[in-house]
């Protein structure tokens, strides 16, 4: 087996990380298995393998103790109000050997876990099995839902996660059993190594010349018109694809067919458009006329005889609803063979200039069934650019154990790993990790979650990272509309804001760790417990006109022991309240509702005197931010002045000469300011303002201006 020595080394490192985590948790049996599951899911999330994170739940064989189920993703909303989406159900089993030596799996070992997952699903379709489960069993609510929706579920994704290496080269990609399509995903140690080192090649090749592929998608090529302009630097194709081929591709590749960067934080589980559905069912031959079609990109396109015969990494950036609607009809046995969809394909090769910007603009400007909001492009939002800048310029204070390090803001998915792997030598890689420790990396979706709980919206956080990110984006966008009329974004979002955001990050992560290690924690609903606990704390602080000492947390990069004890006790109280209030409802779904939050706000919880003694009077943190804004304005003015002093006498002469040539009027005040620079004299505030006005007028008249 190739690279086995490298995998042995990676296994040793991985095993050491799991062991350290389990020792901290104090329970080497259960906690090491969960630690393994959590670490793998984090790697899968970093590599965009999952649309959303699974709920952890441990269900084992009563006789052998072997794991049968470790987690699941079940989108119940897809069965409400005709909502749709791919992969309605995903079941995970985590097979952690807890051995210090690398294990090799053969086909029989893999098949056993796949069969156990399948059997679990079919047993959940039997009322006797579901009712026999104890009411307190974490798997009970899932079993009830699977029994309830068994007639609607057509596809089940089975994930087998293991620290072993699979010896067989190819496993069965899918199994059809009793009318259910089971799609198999195996995440072994080799896959984890590729994830961790950003080496996983996720290229999808659509080869219509391959008989197996063309038979599967029922298409030997996509009719197209090549409208490429050689000087444009990219390829352009107008194509027509059958509805059945599109549905099969979506069935086969799921969200990966729409995983382009611009869509990283969107939810694809949109509701079926009634008009699209009616056209598919009642007038499929008119679909082409009524529908706007889809816009897509590809890394490479190969054309022969006016047909696309091969594509690499074909991805839809507009038209997700169209695609999902056709797939939903196909899944419901509707005849989609008469449906044809127009497809605009832009071929953007790896070396295409400004590829990511082009992807974003293609999605932004292309026609689509639904308007794409500016908030959909949050990674390039001014807030994120500013927060990333603050992360790079604010070092952890010397008073903290992790002094001389920085927090890394992952504005775009996977940028931490990309930057780390940019370095070739191990020395440089170690220097990067020392400067930006992995545990000080914040993802864009995490920041939205961390800050949203302090906005008293735990029910939105409970709906998932992508949903809360969009809600947070909308709030920031609306806020900046008002802010930028009076002050700049870098003044509003300043160093103090950043430090308080990091303090909130530390609080959230500490709470998450505390809940996971708590003796009262049963292994379920951790995300909900953490979100509601911190939101309740924020609510209580508002009501009592007190606030956390964020400065202290920033200075030591940790929370006090009294704070930790409070979060532990509060987490238990919140969990008990959620379980009581949810009753027979599915707990995860109940936590997504605002009435859950309305009930939690009534929680009678007594905070300890030690914790209360650490609090500040309300308003201290806001005063700190206001003071920081004043300082930032002074800094901005100073930088502005320095930039004007960088103008050379030659640049000033060119400005005056160009103005004469173009008959552009320069005021006497502006001339005096330019002359002062040429003579090496200082500028007054009034003269700096006049030069700003001059350059603004020059730009408006398309005249060249110095780059300041």
Describe this structure in words.
This protein is α/β, with parallel strands linked by helices and 708 residues long. 50% of the residues lie in helices and 14% in strands. The chain folds into 4 domains: 4-196; 205-372, no CATH class; 382-622, no CATH class; 646-700, no CATH class. The strands form 5 sheets. Strands 9, 10, 11, 12, 13, 14, 15 and 16 form an 8-stranded mixed sheet that branches. The chain has a 6-stranded mixed sheet with strand order 1-2-3-5-8-7. It has a two-stranded parallel sheet with strand order 4-6. Helix 16 packs across helix 20 (495-517) and helix 29 (668-679) crosses helix 30. The chain is globular, with a radius of gyration of 29 Å. The model is unreliable at 22-30, 80-87, 259-272 and 367-377 (pLDDT under 50).
In short:
50% of the residues lie in helices and 14% in strands. With 708 residues, the protein is an alpha/beta fold.
